[in-house]
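hi! just following up on the protien thing from before. the input was this:
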Amino acid sequence: MKWFLSRLLVVKIVLILVVIGGVVVSVRSVSRGSKAVQYQTATVERGTVVSTISASGTVLISNLVTITTGASGVVKNVLVKDGDTVAAGQNIAEISLDSSGAQQAASAWSSYLSAKNSVDTANTTLWTLQSDMFSKWDTYKKLAESADYDTPEERTLPAFFIANDNWLAAEAKYKQQQSVIAQTNAALSSSWFFYQTRSPMITAPIAGTVTNIGLVTGMVLTSQTGQRVAVIANKAAPLASFTISEIDVPNVTVGQKATITLDSIAGKTFTGVVATVDRIGTTSNTVTTYPVTIKLDTSSDQILPNMAANASIIRETKADILMIPTSAVQMQNGTSTVRVLRNGKEEQVTVQTGISSDTQTEIVSGLSEGDVVITGTTSAAVTTTTRSVFSGFGGPGGMRGR
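and the predicted 3d structure came back as:
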């Protein structure tokens, strides 16, 4: 009983101290998050939209002709230097042929002479056939004009038919021989070009400026086919080859203008025109691409073969039209829509669009000049915090807030 009474006394004392000391109530901070939307806008205005098709490719060797040789021996003389202007057929270098080179040159020369003889023989045959054709034509003409064969019945007689057939056969042989002449001339040209690759004298195939000379007096050449000796550059505009997708190829035609940039020539843009469009294309890994050749309007010493290039082929240009940033146009179920700010409120408007570029889109209907369209939105979080409040009992003044 004494133990219980002592315990009860302790509890009462603690309760009295709590009441006297006061009770502290802490109110925690409360954060309330809200978002304020900020709009990025643009104004509908009039301007020019250029619709383009992008393509990548490389510069071709269009205005450069490579001089090669298959001769073997020692370089005796180099007759030109980089930057020299040469005429077609002008000597570039001279080679002292070794035994193998001399044998190949002699064989090539023999083949050329044989081809030349074939051309001469073919021409002789052509002249003979021509004479025979005219002779038989004259025979047929005389029969056709004679009184003996002036009726349809008389012209069915064998003598008249034979004269006519002889003339037609002679004419066919003459025309056939003309094809033989073309073949023998082609063989002659081929044999001459082959001889030039084995000749001790290397000549310029075209007129132009010599560059990239790879010969030095005393250099030993082996009998490798197609050894590059030098390069001749002419004034022809360079070409560049690009590839386009199957989606874009129907919209590319010969004659379209284009702008070209080269990765290795910073800050410069070249103009050109589409010269060829290959509509057969090639397929790789189920992807079909179509080659397009663009001829540049001007040349430059900085443009070199095989440089990486990018082209923008101009598909269509429209001036003085309503336009907005392309980023403002949204597609919903095949319909173009634009968000518009009117009286500070956002509205969604259906529009009809026309041509577009990477940055601008034509508006055909749905908007007016001066309308404000939304191109994007941003949001910022706003936080509100309440201050902590303390209250208690005890001391002068009773309950107080701190």
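Helices lie at 2-21, 99-145, 158-198.
Residues 99-145 form the longest helix (47 residues).
cheers
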